[in-house]
Amino acid sequence: MGELRLMKGNEALAEAVIRAGVDGYFGYPITPQSEVIEYLTAEKPEERTGMVVLQAESEIASINMLYGGGGTGKKVMTSSSSPGISLMQEGLSYIASAEIPIVLVNVVRGGPGLGDIQPAQSDYFQSTKGGGHGDYRLIVLGPSSVQEMSDFVPLAFDLAFKYRNPVMILSDGAIGQMMEKVELFEPIPRLTDKEIIERYPWATNGKPKGGERRILTSLDLDPAKMERHNWHLQKKYKEIEENEVRFEAINTEDADYVIVAYGSSARISQKAIQLLREKGIKTGLLRLITLWPFPYKQIEALVGQGIKGFLSVEMSAGQMVEDVRLAVNGKVKVEHFGRYGGMVHSPEEVMEALEQKIIGG
Amino acid sequence: MTEEIIIAGFGGQGVLSMGKILAYSGIMQNREVSWMPSYGPEMRGGTANVTVIVSDERISSPILRSYDTAIILNQQSMDKFEQTVKTYGTLLYDPNGITKHPTRADINIYRVEGAKKAAEMGNTKIFNMIVLGAYLKMKPIVKIENVIKGLRKSLPERYHKLIPLNEDAIRMGMNSVEIVQEVK
Q: Which ipTM was obtained for this model?
């Protein structure tokens, strides 16, 4: 068993970044995720692993530092919260098009605008449907515990390099600020420059003798070539949709109703299904781990299994519910419930919503 | 066993660190724990509260609306959290600064003169450990040796010399907690 510690989600993530063999972190502080850069600075990772930690002059600078650092085949990442992530969207679109593997973390806070610093999940559309311009996708992971804030860091890098695609860890203020027991994984050594050259033939770390110049760009003024590049990206996204859907089904086998949720809403909903079962209402929970790719097929299968209604629970005005509706395709009732703007629903409110909107409605 | 606790008082009373020590003690006793603080503007000079859950099962929601136990350390928190204690649940409070005492008839109510005892012991900083001792006397969810282990883990080494004082404070709380009413 690895080392056990009591840590905040943000701290566990930062420790995992050092242990995952990351080469560089480039970030700009913003509540409720500032503990990430605080922890990284206090821990002196430059002494532990040689990792670089840099406070950039802005979020726009940090995302473009990832473009450069990731382009050389190094493991690079950033973290921020909602308004900061909005600033990064242009760079993210460029990174997705140039197929640079990077990891970014969004510890979501209430919006829109500058909003507040309390937990929210209202960046689902931005994270899973684009956010920047053009036809691109991020792989999006939704941790629902401090343990997953740690475990998803190496997973995110594995997926980023496997598909040469940006990966987002979409957390929220509650998961970032809460403390739980976390088992830390054994450190993974950073790759040497030689290993990077051998492993990543696409990386722009110098023209090999007698080889081709390597170019990473998102620009191609020939529309036919750009369409071919898009076909290639779409093929890759389809492959990710087929292979990388991750979720946890809790008590769905005998359920009449299913709550679909991720992150802290999944935790709250897990308590709600216990309360509902105490009342004799058989409810299950589909806890999403990947938000993109979304488990359309798995939800369709639950409809086939005889689920009578779905409640999509999210700290937003109703974003993920659109994907649940697409999957259910009108066959049974689908409703949204959630507090937002930084307010967090209680398990009792989720229970009442299922009773009123799905069973009673 | 699942114990869902809210600890609420003024910022600076050691509310968050008391919750952290309780959570660490739970880990030392091989329990699952969660610690969910209020954070943000309300922390700065105003009220502070933290939800701590100690359980022998995987913890579902770290965010709750009703609690097995409320530990209340100022009037604002009394106003806000007295009604959130579950029936037959427990309310522990320090009467210092309380003008409206709890009135619920369906819960266990205990009081501890934490601020007064801390002043008597000559160190107001151990206030929260006196309250923790009072809580553990009424709800022995973790053993005192695991609390000491928790303190060792959570305090920087330069403060380890203060652990005996904290232990004394916990025992002071255990010995001075008073029963206001018991319903079960």
A: 0.92
Share of chain A above pLDDT 70, in %: 100
The DSSP symbol for A356 reads I
Question: How far apart, in whole angstroms, are the C-alpha atoms of residue B54 and residue B35?
Answer: 9
Cβ(A82)–Cβ(A123) below 8 Å: yes
What is the distance between the terminal CA atoms of chain A, rounded to a whole angstrom? 48
| Residue among B25, B39, B42, B43 with most chain A CBs within 10 A, to mutate | B39
The residue among A184, A205, A237 that closes a domain is A184
Cβ within 8 Å of B, A 289-348: 344, 346-348
A178, A250, A283, A315: best to mutate for the B interface, most B CBs within 10 A: A178
Position A278 scores a pLDDT of 97
| A positions 221-280 inside 8 Å of B (CB) | 264, 267-272, 274
- CA A142 to CA A325: how far, in whole Å? 20
A283 has a chain B CB within 8 A of its CB? no
- What's the domain count of chain A? 2
pLDDT at A209 exceeding the cut of 90: no
In a domain, A172, yes or no: yes
For B84-123, the pLDDT digits (tens) are 999 999 999 999 999 999 999 999 999 999 999 999 999 9
